[in-house]
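Quick check before the chapter quiz. The format below is the same one you will see on the exam, so make sure you can read both the input and the output lines.
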Amino acid sequence: MKMSNVIRKTVGVITLSVFNLFIGCGDTEFIEPLSFELDTRLSKDSNGYYRMTIDTTSLQSFHRISGKVTRNGEAVNVIKFGWASNMYWIIGDNFGYVIANNGLTDDLVYVGYDTTHITWFSGWEVPIVNGSSYSREDGEVNTMIAPTRNMRGDTATIYVSYYDNWTYETHDKEFEIIFD
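Here is the expected output.
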């Protein structure tokens, strides 16, 4: 091997090492943690509980809960949020039905001869909150809650958690909603 090749390889290894030293080291002590601001879109009472009015004319009342995730005041995209609640409802013995469409008439109208009731979900637990969501480009994160009408008068605890993959920290938050 020629001496110039050895020098070139040595200089290349040193350059690569110095580059990795300055660029490749991620020191998390200088990274600001994520900040999450919750927006329930609900009023808060004097005891700190959020209040949601239940629609008693429908099986479920749907409501969106939002928030914004930032780092150093800048929106953060694609942070996964996990949501949970201490409440759920159980599917009864008749979840719904399906009408089998067996074809079209000469007037292009569907003909249904058979109705099948959906019973195989009986006994399944259904959480009142959507289990996960991701932040958008503008930092906004959303989930839906859907308590049932028989939960009127109950208090649900909603749990939210997210992981900061820059600081390697998990952040947890919980809040209560009274269903009026």
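If your answer matched, good. The chain has one helix and 14 strands.
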